[in-house]
User: Fold this.
Amino acid sequence: MQNLIKYILCLISVISFMTISHYASAQRTMHGQSSIHAEALFNGRSFGAEVSYGQYTLNGYWDTGISFNDYNENLSTGDRFQYGHLSVKGGYMFRIAGTTSRNISLYGGGGTFLGCELMDPFGRLPFIETNTNDFRFLYGIYAKINLEVFLIEKTALTLNLALPVNFSSVFEAVHYQTGLGCKILL
Assistant:
């Protein structure tokens, strides 16, 4: 009889803990929850950074932020011509899949960006005639897949793959990006 009582109390404790922890976990991505996100970006040749603010909705989240991506091209002289994209961006990510507790979620979506393309932003090359301005207006769209893993209650590790399409770039119109970042819920 004593073992049965211990078993029932243990079962009630486990069920109570699961109910409470599940409710607390699901609250982290509830509708209206705000977050800030910092991310290091890699495009195959060099690095960039992005900082954004976002808010969860019923089916995903929206975000807006600023990013800088550094690119480079080989020149016939053997030097590398660097150019950068400084832009503001915004978009919406739909939740594709996730755990019930939302500790792990996969999002897919896209958005738009607007900014400028900076030619040789760090002045590393001697003057060369490029027949372009030092900067150029930049705009485009991007598609993105984002994996979000909450390590602790209000902090998540993010991993993503993006494909920005630049409609006004002097160089390549399409670049891929991978990103690793940290999201903090406010």
